[in-house]
Design a protein that fits this description.
The chain has one helix at about 75-90, and strands spanning about 10-15, 25, 35-40, 45-50, 55-60, 65-70, 95-100, 105-115, 130-145. The chain is mainly β. It has one domain (about 10-40, about 60-145). It starts with 9 loop residues before the first strand and ends with a strand.
C-alpha cells in the first residue's frame, strides 16, 4: 500500500433484471468527500434476563452501502434507470456490486441488494448538489485484491 486514495478505486454495479445494467456498469463521478460508505453492523443480539445474566447470539444482518454521486455524474442515469424500471414493472430488482481498492489491496463484493435510498434529483443551490443513494445487501465478502 502506497496511499489511502480512493481515486484509483473501481465501483461496479450490476442489476440483472434491467437490460442496461445487466452486464454491470462502472460507477463514475462519485464525490470526493462522501464517495461510498457502509453502516456499522450489529452481528450479535443480546438480552438480559431478570437475574442480570447476559445472553446473546450471532444473527444475519444486511449491509447498507451508501454512495454519493456528483450531480453531473454520468452514473446518475444508471440509478435513475434502475429506479424507473422497478416502477414501470411494479417489481423490485436486486443488484450486485463490487468495489476494488488498489490502495488498500481489497475487493468488496456485495450480493442481492435492494435500492433502499434514492434521491430523485439534485438539490439546486448556486451549484447543483450531490445525490446520495443506499443499497441494502444480503451479503458482503471481503477479499484481497
Amino acid at each position: 500500500m502506497t496511499s489511502l486514495t480512493v481515486a484509483n478505486s473501481a465501483f461496479t454495479l450490476e442489476v440483472p433484471d434491467v437490460p442496461l445494467l445487466a452486464s454491470g456498469v462502472v460507477i463514475l463521478g462519485y464525490t470526493a468527500d462522501d464517495a461510498f460508505d457502509a453502516d456499522s453492523l450489529a452481528p450479535n443480539e443480546v438480552m438480559t434476563g431478570v437475574d442480570a445474566r447476559l445472553s446473546g447470539g450471532w444473527v444475519y444482518v444486511p449491509t447498507k452501502l451508501k454512495f454519493t454521486l456528483q450531480a453531473d455524474s454520468p452514473s446518475v442515469f444508471y440509478i435513475d434507470t434502475w429506479y424507473e424500471s422497478m416502477g414501470a414493472d411494479k417489481e423490485s430488482f436486486t443488484a450486485n456490486a463490487t468495489i476494488v481498492s488498489p490502495a488498500l489491496g481489497k475487493i468488496w463484493t456485495f450480493g442481492k441488494g435492494f435500492l433502499t435510498g434514492y434521491k430523485p434529483m439534485p438539490q439546486g443551490k448556486k451549484l447543483f448538489q450531490a445525490q446520495a443513494y443506499e443499497i441494502t445487501f444480503e451479503r458482503k465478502i471481503t477479499a484481497a485484491a
